[in-house]
């Protein structure tokens, strides 16, 4: 069952069309079709080895599919490299935290803003006029928008490598937001977090998606089924590179193959309570 058949073209931000990906004789993705609506949280679930991370790597340009097409705002981006997709407004966090441990929180987040810098080498070296004004504007955006949103004011000058894992996750999210994306890929943002940290991160995702300042479309790859069902507008279920269903949380919860393969009777009951 596909929940996207009646979409208008202008409603679709990202589309995967008949995407295949092979590693030798292993088929990681087999004819995947997916449409991500503007403004939604669209989750991708499945067991380890289902092809979720491969799919995310294809979306942000780390992999090029052997067959099929990727469209962003109705534009084919198959040949776009990762930095070009970032320039188009696609940002990502990773399954394993990717931060610069010896740099401060602010410096890590600032790195995500470099793609918006327009000053040249000469003007940047003398740091006057437009260059100074540009940095002030970017600094204001980071410090007043991102730092405030993620509630990390108290650690802004601390080296990231000295921070607990949960705070490092926030810093990585902050760096992705510094890109000011339209599409944000969140690859297992809750992995390794305690209950309080999970609640905080879920709240941040909701704010990023719903607050007028952000309104970011999100692709959420996650194993926590309770969070997935609570946050998602649509859920895409992947198994050994094949789609089982792409539907609403209710449709997914009641799909017999999903119940059997992923949720199980006990977990399904827990998500309905």
Description:
- The structure is a single chain.
- The protein is α/β, with parallel strands linked by helices and 273 residues long.
- It has a domain at 103-179.
- Helices cover 40% and strands 23% of the residues.
- It contains 10 helices and 10 strands.
- It has helices at residues 52-59, 82-88, 105-111, 121-126, 130-150, 165-178, 195-210, 225-231, 249-253, 256-272; strands at 12-23, 26-37, 41-45, 67-72, 75-76, 90-93, 183-187, 217-221, 234-239, 242-247.
- The strands form 2 sheets. It has a 6-stranded mixed beta sheet with strand order 6-7-8-3-9-10, sandwiched between helices.
- It is globular.
- It starts with 11 loop residues before the first strand and ends with a helix.
- The model is unreliable at 1-5 and 120-128 (pLDDT under 50).
């Amino acid at each position: 069952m596909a929940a996207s058949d009646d979409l208008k073209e202008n409603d679709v931000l990202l589309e995967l069309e008949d995407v295949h990906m092979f590693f030798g004789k292993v088929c990681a993705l087999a004819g995947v079709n997916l449409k991500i609506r503007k403004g939604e949280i669209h989750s991708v679930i499945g067991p380890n080895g289902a092809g979720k991370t491969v799919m995310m790597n294809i979306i942000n340009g780390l992999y090029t599919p052997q067959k099929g097409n990727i469209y962003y705002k109705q534009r084919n981006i198959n040949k776009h490299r990762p930095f070009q997709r970032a320039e188009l407004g696609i940002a990502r966090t990773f399954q394993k935290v990717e931060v610069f441990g010896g740099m401060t929180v602010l410096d890590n987040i600032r790195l995500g803003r470099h793609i918006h810098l327009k000053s040249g080498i000469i003007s940047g070296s003398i740091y006057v006029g437009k260059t100074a004004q540009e940095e002030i504007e970017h600094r204001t955006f980071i410090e007043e928008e991102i730092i405030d949103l993620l509630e990390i004011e108290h650690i802004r000058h601390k080296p990231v490598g000295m921070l607990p894992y949960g705070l490092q996750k926030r810093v990585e999210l902050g760096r992705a937001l510094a890109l000011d994306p339209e599409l944000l890929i969140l690859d297992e943002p809750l992995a390794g977090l305690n209950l309080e940290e999970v609640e905080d991160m879920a709240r941040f995702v909701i704010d990023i998606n719903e607050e007028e300042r952000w309104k970011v479309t999100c692709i959420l790859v996650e194993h926590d089924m309770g969070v997935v069902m609570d946050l998602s507008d649509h859920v895409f279920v992947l198994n050994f590179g094949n789609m089982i269903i792409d539907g609403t949380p209710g449709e997914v919860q009641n799909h017999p193959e999903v119940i059997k393969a992923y949720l199980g009777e006990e977990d399904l009951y827990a998500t309905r309570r």
